[in-house]
Design goal:
700 residues; alpha+beta; seven-stranded mixed sheet; five-stranded antiparallel sheet; 21 helices; 39% helix
């Protein structure tokens, strides 16, 4: 039947995406612990998880009955946010924004970055209704576009191109054995064409080897080809340790490549096979040998170690085709040079993206900690060509390139392949970690580490129309070379969506009714030397002080942050940086929380007297802080008035956390209201699922 075995339709591809999401969640800690190149910021697993979550949200939209057209028109609504000001790339599950021009400001979850329209709760199960008869192409194209717009780190960008390869291969029908072969080969080509200097021992090598093994598989069933690709990938993964000096020194395999293996293994399962049992890869000294043991759904992650050294190895300049010597194959097809991207002297990162070892994170998306500057509205095209701009800058191979200080990212529209090539060359003349990828439908995403952020933006302006410009400082923490900071974050949160936001950012969550005793017990259960607590309004100040005093002892420091709401907690968590000393980290987080005005929309449970007058049961109440400022029998009208009051004092970013009992369509209605009345203000919407508040609102 369609969707099972040898033919995967749109519904089956959606199930594959869900399984990938679950697999990446299970292996996130393992993958993060492998991330030592070029900067050991331990976020590759999280970046892959976040990017795949954006793709799956779009797939579910496309797979719902009648949803394919909408998804094709605007799957960017599922693009997951990127981070701002956080060492961790831990973007949350369901971040989305309005569809007004300018794109969404990214938020770390926390962080900051992409996305329109409200998404449902992020998928965590392989079960769930999807439309029957939806085409594989509509789902795959939606996944590819959402992943491109919501990619986190270069590992996420590579993943987006893998999904684009699938989308192009199934343009005329479902995923079959033959189209899977085409998808893997096309993905390998797309990835190499997007990178300024591809390097072996990374995701590129594993993707090439998977494509080679799939092509050489003599069987004609989809299951057999998928298994051949996965087995080829695992063989190549084991060889990455010897291909890059930094991996060899740390005794690990490439982190992004390990994540790619998760996707291939889950494809084997969806095609009717048994999920392959893989070794659990941990730091293994000089040999990089994996620890044999369960690596599936029930794998224990407690003994995974994290190497935080910032060493780097030498790049291997290669051509764009298959690489038999890396894959352990002879006579592998596809050896012809297809991209002409070989030959770079720059050091490459874990996903094969050339970059500076002192300035790039695992995916070439910048080091940490970061302080971000973002621009939402679309920027119009200016004259000139990107190549002309690079010439005006006077760069040459003999001139020393300034150390990268900024990470610059933006989306690009209204351009063509020639201009994109010129842009890629121009950015390469300005810095490193250059990658420019497309979604196959006219949208492009560009990234560079450079010393002159303005020049990088100007280069983009010469190539097309820019939106979602994000500029972040690169400041690699020297603390990372000493090992992981013994600091944990405990957050009091309710609602499944909100819980997931904080957990995806690495926080430990205290759910349910929060009492002083429960909070004290949770703090004492934390294994960390330093514990930062985000109370999020769960307890009054005097109780928090008492708990803090009681929790402190000779083995633990406890610091309470002044967060009176969940949206303030999200703002604080977006600024968390474990590379700083605790007092500096707390100051930055507290400043972010204090800079976020917060409010909420509720329904009056009974007749009561407020500072705005008397309300009746069922009235909509708009609160700023703890004070009622709006009473309206129409709940939706109360919400609009509340937003007007809060934005009347100014604001650049509105975060809305949607409650479990919010009326249908409320988030979209409020996003449209902001777009109409406050042009240029960005909107980010999360499905929070909290009880009580229909909407929690934060204005920054």
């Amino acid at each position: 039947m369609p969707g099972v075995g040898d033919v995967l339709d749109g519904a089956a591809l959606t199930r594959w995406g869900r399984r990938c999401l679950e697999g990446l969640e299970r292996h996130r800690d393992e993958i993060n612990a492998l991330n030592v190149f070029p900067v050991a910021d331990a976020d590759t697993g999280t970046n892959l998880l976040t990017t795949m979550r954006a793709a799956v949200l779009a797939a579910e939209e496309a797979a719902r009955p009648g949803g394919s057209d909408a998804a094709a028109g605007d799957v960017s609504s599922a693009a997951v946010v990127a981070k701002r000001g956080s060492e961790r790339s831990d973007a949350p599950a369901g971040a989305v924004r309005d569809s007004t021009p300018g794109g969404a400001v990214d938020r770390n979850p926390v962080g900051r970055a992409d996305t329109p329209s409200l998404a449902t709760n992020a998928p965590n199960s392989v079960d769930g209704p999807v439309g029957s008869g939806v085409t594989a192409h509509s789902v795959a194209a939606a996944m590819a576009r959402a992943a491109t717009l919501g990619a986190r780190g270069n590992s996420g960008i590579i993943l987006s191109q893998v999904l684009r390869g699938v989308a192009e291969a199934v343009s005329d029908g479902p995923l079959t054995a033959e189209s899977l072969r085409l998808a893997l080969r096309r993905a390998a080509v797309l990835v190499r064409e997007a990178l300024s200097s591809p390097v072996e021992g990374t995701m590129l090598t594993i993707l090439d080897c998977a494509a080679d093994h799939a092509a050489e598989c003599q069987e004609r069933t989809l299951r057999a080809v998928a298994l051949a690709a996965a087995d080829g990938a695992v063989k190549a993964l084991g060889e990455t340790t010897s291909q890059l000096g930094v991996l060899r020194e740390a005794g690990v395999v490439d982190a992004g490549a390990r994540g790619l293996l998760v996707l291939l293994d889950e494809l084997v399962t969806v095609t009717g096979g048994t999920t392959p049992t893989r070794p659990r890869y941990v730091r293994g000294g000089s040999g990089g040998m994996p620890i044999r043991g369960a690596s599936g759904a029930g794998a224990d992650r407690s003994d995974i170690s994290t190497d935080l050294r910032g060493a780097h190895g030498d790049p291997i300049a290669t051509r764009a085709g298959a690489h038999p010597q890396a894959c352990g194959l002879s006579g592998a097809p596809g050896a012809a040079d297809e991209s002409g991207l070989a030959g770079s002297s720059r050091v490459a990162n874990e996903s094969g993206m050339a970059g500076s070892p002192d300035a790039a994170d695992e995916g070439g998306m910048g080091g940490s900690p970061r302080a971000a500057s973002e621009s939402g509205p679309a920027v119009g095209r200016v004259g000139g060509a990107a190549s002309d701009f690079a010439a005006r800058m006077g760069d040459s191979a003999d001139s020393p390139m300034p150390a990268p200080q900024y990470e610059v990212m933006y989306l690009l529209d209204g351009t063509d392949e020639e201009q994109v090539t010129d842009l890629r060359d121009a950015l390469a003349g300005l810095g490193d970690s250059v990658v420019v990828v497309g979604d196959g439908a006219g949208a492009w995403s560009a990234h560079v580490h450079c010393a002159d952020a303005g020049a990088a933006v100007e280069a983009g302006l010469s190539a097309g129309v820019l939106s979602r410009i994000r500029i972040e400082t690169l400041a690699v923490s020297m603390h990372a070379t000493l090992g992981p900071t013994d600091r944990g974050i405990l957050a009091a949160v309710s609602g499944p969506g909100a819980v997931r936001l904080f957990e995806d950012s690495g926080a430990t969550v205290l759910e349910g009714e929060v009492t002083s005793e429960a909070l004290l017990t949770a703090i004492r259960a934390m294994p960390h030397r330093e514990v930062l607590v985000l109370p999020n309004g769960a307890l009054p100040a005097h109780e928090l002080v008492a708990v803090s005093v009681a929790a402190r002892d000779g083995m633990r420091d406890v610091l309470m942050l002044p967060c009176s709401s969940v949206v303030q907690g999200l703002a604080a968590l977006s600024m968390h940086d474990s590379g700083r000393i605790a007092v500096d980290d707390v100051f930055a987080m507290s400043e972010a929380a204090a800079g976020t005005r917060w409010g909420s929309l509720r329904v009056a449970a009974e007749r009561a007297l407020t500072i705005q007058g008397t309300c009746a049961a069922g009235d909509g109440l708009g609160l700023v802080g703890h004070d009622v400022v709006v009473i309206d029998p129409d709940v939706r009208a109360a919400a609009r008035t509340l937003l007007d009051r809060m934005l009347g004092l100014g604001g650049e970013l509105v975060t809305m956390l949607i409650g479990a009992e919010a009326p249908d369509g409320l988030a979209d209605e409020l996003s449209d209201h902001i777009a109409a009345g406050f042009p240029g203000v960005e909107v980010v919407v999360y499905p929070g699922g909290q009880a009580g508040d229909l909407v929690q609102i934060g204005v920054e």
